[in-house]
Specification:
This protein has about 350 residues and is mainly alpha-helical. It has helices spanning about 5-15, 20-25, 25-40, 50-75, 80-100, 115-135, 140-160, 180-185, 195-210, 215-225, 225-230, 235-260, 270-280, 295-315, 320-340, and strands spanning about 100, 105-110, 165, 185-190, 190, 265.
């Protein structure tokens, strides 16, 4: 006869409240709450709406890079070129805002801001396309391909500027190219435009991943590319598109950063690719691909941004800031290993009973 009490106990234990699992899966959210609480206690100016909006405008840069990085990581890849793409995008925008000289015609063209934005995003898409083609068709390892494009994009930016910085990107009314600073300085409903751009991109990415066939293809490619290909998923096309989207996100981040600074330098975005990867990892995505969400990535970006700005506000040395940020990243990777390294315990197969012939009397 079955022991009802023991069965009930096992069921309750299996479906009970698992605090450790909740803390592990929601670690980015709880880390963000802890950061806000600690720095609000240490500094009276930290916990204020004005300061949160300023910090959010800083996070917008990392968040845009992290969204593109998430799409790539979900397929099992990596994109080390996003920081250099950001820098090159800013330089392209600065070059166009300074005027394009056509020597054979003896004229200088000053394109309107919307043309500058479109052309800059196309440059980012082109860099992503190169990455995707090298990885998908020529089977170059993602680390090597994107590392090579990192140097190429940075070198092009240095060649275009000769190591200098484009300043005064506000444009002039008589030239019809004003409005570039709108991304960095203007606000809508008291929210910085850069933050609103991040929200729009995050919502679009979330909808694509959760509600479209392309989103399912991304997850399946990262889970098992060979099985996905046998199931009819266009794996190569997916790999190329995620790198293109990552390049576009980096270009948008470059536009926002250049607009905030009203200048564009060839060294902008240095090491930002590592910050983007860190935001994705802190947000709970698996570096092996197939697991991760936009919501978690955004929380990871805010964790890094609010931690860095909090350390600046309380006057911590920049060297210690690097140490703390690195420690957070290592701890996040460790938690990811714990979460995704778990395997369900195998149940021992119980051999089926075979009917034995009754012994002869």
């Amino acid at each position: 006869m079955t022991d009802i009490s023991s069965t009930t106990g096992r069921t309750g234990a299996s479906s009970g409240f698992d605090l450790g699992r909740i803390l592990l899966e929601g670690r980015a959210f709880f880390a963000l709450i802890a950061i806000i609480a600690v720095f609000s206690f240490l500094s009276p100016v930290y916990f204020s709406t004005a300061n949160f909006l300023i910090m959010a405008s800083h996070v917008a840069i990392f968040g845009l890079l992290a969204i593109g990085m998430l799409l790539v990581i979900l397929t099992g890849g990596i994109d080390l070129s996003v920081g250099s793409t950001l820098g090159l995008a800013g330089v392209i925008a600065g070059f166009l805002m300074q005027g394009v000289t056509l020597e054979p015609l003896g004229v200088i063209l000053y394109p309107p801001v919307w043309v500058v934005v479109v052309l800059t995003c196309l440059v980012g898409a082109f860099i992503g396309l190169l990455n995707g083609v090298l990885i998908a068709y020529f089977k170059v390892p993602a680390f090597v391909a994107t590392l090579g494009l990192l140097y190429v994009a940075r070198g092009v930016a240095l060649l275009m500027t000769n190591g200098l910085t484009y300043n005064n990107l506000g444009g002039r009314p008589e030239l019809g190219n004003t409005g570039f600073q709108w991304l960095g300085f203007n606000r809508l409903f008291n929210v910085p435009i850069g933050v609103l751009v991040l929200v729009v991109v995050a919502v679009i990415a979330s909808v694509v991943l959760s509600r479209t066939a392309f989103g399912r293809w991304i997850y399946s490619t990262g889970g098992n590319a060979r099985a996905a290909e046998l199931s009819g998923v266009p794996v190569r096309r997916v790999q190329i598109l995620v790198y293109v989207l990552s390049g576009v996100c980096a270009a948008i981040a470059g536009l926002v950063l250049s607009s905030q600074l009203t200048s564009a330098g060839p060294t902008a975005g240095t090491t930002y690719e590592l910050t983007a990867i860190a935001a994705v990892v802190i947000g709970g995505a698996a570096l092996t691909g197939g697991r991760g969400t936009v919501r978690g990535t955004m929380l990871g970006a805010f964790v890094i941004g609010f931690l860095s700005d909090g350390l600046v506000i309380i006057g911590v040395s920049s060297y210690w800031q690097t140490v703390f940020t690195g420690a957070v990243i290592v701890f996040a990777v460790l938690l990811n290993s714990i979460q995704y390294g778990r395997r369900p315990a195998r149940t021992k197969a119980v051999p089926a009973r075979t009917s034995q012939p009754a012994p002869k009397a």
